[in-house]
Please model this.
Amino acid sequence: MFENEKKSPETDVYAIHGADPEVLAYAMAKYSRSALTMKESLAEISAQRAEQFLNTFYFQYGHRSIADLAHIPFAVERLSLLAAIELVDEQRWDGQERSTRYQNFRRSGWFTPELGEQTGAYTAAIEALFGAYDRVGAGMLTALKAAIPQPEAMKAEAYERTLKARAFDVGRYLLPLATNTSLGQIVNARTLETQVSRLLTSEFAEVRQIAEKLRVAATEPAWNVQQGAAQVLCEEIGSVDAACAERVAEMLLRPVKTAPTLVKYAEANAYRAQSRRELAAAAAELMQGQAIGAAPVVDLLDDEESLEVELATSLLYPHCHYSYRQLRGHVSGLSGARLGEVIALGVKHRGRHDELLRAFSAGRGFRFDILMDIGGFRDMHRHRRCVQLLQGYTDAHGYEEPVCPGQPTLAAAGLADEYSAAMDAAFVAYRRLRDSGAPESAESAQSAQYCLPLGTRCRAMFKMDFAEALYISELRSGVAGHFSYRRVAWEMYKTVAEKHPGLAGLFRIEDVNEPVDLLRR
Model:
């Protein structure tokens, strides 16, 4: 009998539940090395055999794709907004974070870094921002209720909830980066490994501590959502058959370590750390303290420069606060030899298994240099089908004011002075903390960034293809979205339409300058 005749000729499709992540990764990897079915593989695999297999093929032979097959859910709770932005900065990432639109973050508390004698000043600055957050949010809710009467057909609860969300959209500009949040993520083991390594290389102590906790969480027994019910079941069975109850307990209550093998060697990435220092120094040397030039909210870069110029500019961009266009103007003036030296800095310290720095993802057709508030950036940051280069947080670009067509302005609500005073005071506190540490204390200067509110402008480069440019413009310009990123999405569309007028009609987009129905969600 031929082999093909032993099994059903029909395609078999079935979902799988209950296998440990590493065991399942091993079973899937076996497809390339064995004729066994998935059911047969899982039946004959033990956690010990999976570990042996992974140690051989993952670490010794470098078959990193195996780790793509092990997906692990995590909850990361009570971390700062600043740390959350760093944590989710992965191109292969799936998760959700607490929303500033639907929750009052006043109850969240905040993170306090090690600041020594400056802790009191830091705490006062954070408390002042939260106080302003409360007052501006409450004041805007009152103004919204006065401007928008409740429709007869709308329930009072829905009316209140909708306007509260609009008020939170304004109040969030005053939340400091120190504000605590929580998030859940489901990532594969390879992403987790690179995430832990990247976070261990962070300039922020909080982020490095979270990296270590992620690694521990992956190697220690996971929390079992069925544990309570399983214990009750075992007790009921035990009253009848103790031996059976013991076997059931072994099956249902056994400790599961989600990725003990795949992340055990994750460590700080020397390539990233050393490259960061040298590229920052190169950017400072090139620009020689020049003033930051004016730039639009969205700047769609032309594609006239060479690939070498784009690579060098992209490598330097995350390590300064200049616009891409201003930085590129200086890079373009470098000699061919000097240009090559800058690019070489990006690979100088690269180890055998290190992925290239993200800046090497060059040659994308659409490159948007975006200057927007941090709060709006957090929403734009969720788009994974593009390359994002992020600059550090600073007061150098000033701050945004919440403006939504059709909604009461801060001035109309009597909140303009309150808002500007709170933002100005936060910037003063940031500068004092930044400049208060010893010159050699880089971490102390970094920690001042926790004082910056979400209304602070930040700069980031987004590189993508046309399909993603259209998708982001359409999605983020929708009337239910936050007015901050709606404006950015509209400007993205306008820059594309100006450069490629024949493609403008492909966008299904609404003019964000038109007043909207504020009760529409």
Notes: The longest helix spans residues 119-147.
